Amino acid sequence: MPKTIIISNRLPIKVQRSEAGLAYETSEGGLATGLGSIYKQDDNIWIGWPGTYFEDEAEQQQVTQDLAKQSMHPVFLTESEIRDFYEGFSNETLWPTFHYFSQYAIYDDSFWNAYQQVNQKFCQAVMERAEPGDTIWVHDYQLLLLPAMLRSQIEDSSIGFFQHIPFPSYEVFRLLPWREQLLNGMLGADLIGFHTYDDARHFLSSVSRIVGLNTSQGLIDNGYRHIMVDAFPMGIDDEKYATLAASQETKAKMDEYREALQEQRIILSIDRLDYSKGIPQRLQAFELFLKENPEFHGKVTLFMLVVPSRDQVEMYRQLKETIDELVGRINSSYRTITWNPIQYFYRSFPMEELSALYSIADIALVTPMRDGMNLVCKEFIASKLDKKGVLILSEMAGASRELADAVLINPNDMGQMVQALQDALLMPEDEQMARMGQMQDIVRRYNIHHWVEIFMNRLQYIKMKQETMATE
Ligand code: GDG
Fold it and tell me: Record's superkingdom (predicted)?
C-alpha cells in the first residue's frame, strides 16, 4: 500500500542523553500535532534529524531502533554538517535573506557545499524507504534542494513542499549567489505551498525572472510538468489550547500568577530568541509608552518570555546581550520597591504555564519585523475562553492576513506601537469580546487539521491534473 513520507530538518522529538540512557521527549509543536494524524497511521513515516550529535555508531543504532517504533527515521548529521549546513547555510544565509535581513547573510561556499551534501543525505534516506506511488511532503528552508533530488530518482511520485518562513521579493532573493539552484531544487515538487499569497507571488516572480519559466495563475510550466504554487495559511490545534486553558493545572497556575501580579494589567510577549521577532524594538516601544504614560506606572507589567534558540550563532548571542541591556535599563529606570515593569525570562516554559499566561494576559504583543505565520498569536486567541483580551499584531507576520480584528501595527513605527498599547489598555470589554470572537472563528475554522487536509487534497488534485494535461 502506498504510504506518505514526511521530511523535515528536525524530527518531532527531542533525543537527550541522560544517566539512565537515551531519553525521548515528543515535540508539542504545531507541526508535530498536525502531521501526527498522518505519520502515525499505516506505514507512513517521518524522516529527519533527531537534533543531537551522535558520534557513536552503537548509539546511532539504538536511536534508529527506538525511533522506528514511533514511525520515525533519523538522519544523523556530523559536527561539521551541523555547523555548515544547519547553523551556516540554513541559519546564517537563508534565514536572514528570507526575513529581509540580507545585511546579516553570510555567503560562504563551504556552507553551500555542506547544504548540498546534507540535502543529498536526506535524499538517500528517503530513497532507502520510498516506493512507487508514495506521497512525499518536504518541509522548509533547510531542504530546498531535496524536491528536485527526489524527482530525479523517482519521477512519478507526488512531491509536496511547504515553506514555513517568508519568501522574499525578487530584489532580495536575487542577492543569493545560489538563487537559481535553490529555485530549481524547489521546482522538483508538484505543489509548493507558502503561508501567504504574497510569499507565493514573490516566489513566482523569482521563478519567472531567474529561471525564465512561464508562470500563470499559480501554475508553472517547466516543459515536463505543471507545478502548482499556492498559499496555505497554517493553523493550530485550537481544541488543544482551549482544553488546556480550562484544565485544573492551568487554573492553579493562573491563581498563582494572579496572586503574585496582583491587580497588574499583563502585556504578554513570547518568542524564540531571533532578530526577526523584533524584541528590542518592542522593548523600546514599551519604554516610550512608560515615558509618555506615567498614569500606567505600577499598573502594567510586560511579561516577556524569550525561548533560547541558536545561541551558538554569534548574531544571536549579540541579540541576547542587547535584550538583557534594554530590560536592565528599563527596569532600573522605572521600577519601584513594589513594581517591576518587565518580568523577563530567558527559558522555555511548560505548556500549562504557557496556557496560564495566555489566559491571564490582557494584551498579547506580537510584533515581529518579519514572520512566516506566527503561531503564538493564534494560541493566545484559542486560549481566551472568556474572549477578553486584545491582540496587537505586526503587519509583517503572515497571521495578520487572517486576523484583521487584531490591532495591527508596523513594528518600525514606535509611535503607532505606543498608541496601540494605550488603545488596547483602554478598549471596552464588549469591543474586546467582539474582536476576539471573530478571530476565534477563524482560528477554529482554519485549524491545523484543515491545513493538512487541504494541502494533501491539493497535491492529489495537481497530480490528477498533470495526468489529464499530459494526455490532452
Ligand atoms: C516557524 C516560523 C511559523 C514558545 N515559547 C514556548 C513554547 N513556544 C512555542 C509556541 C509556538 C512556537 O513555540 C513558536 O511558533 P512561531 O510560529 O511563533 O515561530 P517559529 O518557531 O519561528 O516557527 C513561523 C512557524 O514556523 C510554523 O509554520 O508560524 O513564522 O518562523 O507554538 O507555543 N512552547 C513551550 N514553552 C515555551 O516557553 N512549550
Answer: Bacteria
Q: Is 352 a residue whose pLDDT tops 70?
A: yes
**What pLDDT was estimated at residue 30?**
67
Q: For residues 359 and 258, what is the distance between their CA atoms, to the nearest angstrom?
A: 11
Q: What residue spans of 74-168 are helical by DSSP H?
A: 79-81, 95-98, 109-127, 146-153
The angle that helices 376-383 and 238-245 make with each other, rounded to 10 degrees, is 50
**57: its cell numbers:** 555508531
Are 85 and 77 contacting, i.e. CB atoms less than 8 angstroms apart?
A: yes
Q: Are 172 and 96 in contact (CB under 8 A)?
A: no
The percent of residues in the chain predicted with pLDDT above 70, rounded, is 99
Nearest protein CA to atom 26 of ligand 1, as residue: 164
Query: Phi/psi at 22 (nearest 5 deg)?
Result: -85, 135
Residue 148, pLDDT above cutoff 70: yes
Question: Phi and psi of 345, rounded to 5°?
Answer: -130, 125
For the CA of 397, the closest atom of ligand 1 is 30
Relative orientation angle of helices 179-186 and 197-206, to the nearest 10 degrees: 120
In this structure, what DSSP letter does residue 402 have? T
Task: Quote the ligand 1 centre to 270 CA distance (angstroms).
Answer: 9
- Rounded Cα gap, residues 234 and 138, in angstroms: 15
- Residue 450: C-alpha distances to residues 75, 161, 292 (Å): 29, 17, 44
CA of 291 to the centre of ligand 1 (A): 31
Given the C-alpha cell 536511536, which residue does it identify? Answer: 63
CA–CA separation, 73 vs 56, rounded Å?
A: 17
